[in-house]
């Protein structure tokens, strides 16, 4: 596999694991036309018998996913002094986000997974020592972006530098909170 294919697979499993841990289902479409995977919201319902049932709510989020390394992003501050991550998004990918705002049935979010190192051997750690306990760690952080309607740029051809607020981190509570958010 190429380095880019490995990044793709790591990012898919990284974000997919976050969705799964939060109790949501995720699916990878057979064809990729700007949507890398879908997340379905689920809810737990307590029955009078004490049993718990899980049901789909019918609400979905589409995700466009990119993976890069720290070297490919820059960091700065927005006009209010809040930290941001600057990333050059391909024009086609930005236009997909914009089209979805105007014509989509459910939100299309962009998630950027940033690997901590340029060195491929540092991307994944398998923890099997007695000190750390068993486990696996992908050395990355991820952030989400959704264009604000008043900031949409319909003239983008080749690429668009997007500013992702650093507080838009994707963590274990992300999918739960994003289904509450209204776009």
Quick summary:
With 183 residues, the protein is an alpha+beta fold. It is 21% helix and 39% strand.
SSE topology sketch:
Elements: H1 3-21, E1 25-27, E2 37-46, E3 52-69, E4 74-77, E5 83-90, H2 91-103, E6 108-115, E7 124-127, E8 135-138, E9 140-145, E10 159-165, H3 174-180
Parallel strand pairs: 3-6
Antiparallel strand pairs: 1-2, 2-3, 4-5, 5-10, 6-9, 7-8
General description of the model:
With 183 residues, this protein is of the alpha+beta class. It has a single domain (3-180), classed as Trna Endonuclease, Chain: A, domain 1 (3-Layer(aba) Sandwich). Helix content is 21%, strand content 39%. It has 3 helices and 10 strands. It has helices at 3-21, 91-103, 174-180, and strands at residues 25-27, 37-46, 52-69, 74-77, 83-90, 108-115, 124-127, 135-138, 140-145, 159-165. The N and C termini lie far apart (37 Å).
Q: Main traits of this protein?
A:
39% strand, alpha+beta, five-stranded mixed sheet, three-stranded antiparallel sheet, 183 residues, Trna Endonuclease, Chain: A, domain 1
Strand order of the largest sheet: 1-2-3-6-9
Helical region count?
Answer: 3
The CATH topology corresponds to Trna Endonuclease, Chain: A, domain 1
In N-to-C order, the SSE pattern is: HEEEEEHEEEEEH
| SS strand fraction | 35-45%
Task: Write down the domain tally.
Answer: 1
Structural classification: alpha+beta
Name the helicity range. Answer: 10-25%
User: Any guess at the CATH architecture?
Assistant: 3-Layer(aba) Sandwich
């Amino acid at each position: 596999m190429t380095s880019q294919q490995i990044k793709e697979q790591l990012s898919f499993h990284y974000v997919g694991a976050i969705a799964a841990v939060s109790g949501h289902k995720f699916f990878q479409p057979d064809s990729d036309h700007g949507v890398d995977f879908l997340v379905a919201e689920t809810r737990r319902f307590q029955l009078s018998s004490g049993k718990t049932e899980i049901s789909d709510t019918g609400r979905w989020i589409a995700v466009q996913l990119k993976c890069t390394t720290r070297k490919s992003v820059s960091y700065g501050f927005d006009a209010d002094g809040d930290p941001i991550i600057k990333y050059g998004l391909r024009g086609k990918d930005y236009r997909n986000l914009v089209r979805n705002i105007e014509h989509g049935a459910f939100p299309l979010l962009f998630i950027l997974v940033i690997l901590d190192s340029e060195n491929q051997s540092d991307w994944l750690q398998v923890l099997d020592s007695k000190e750390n306990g068993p486990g696996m760690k992908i050395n990355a952080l991820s952030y989400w972006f959704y264009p604000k309607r008043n900031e949409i740029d319909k003239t983008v051809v080749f690429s668009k530098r997007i500013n992702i607020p650093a507080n838009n981190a994707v963590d274990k509570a992300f999918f739960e909170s994003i289904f509450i958010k209204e776009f």
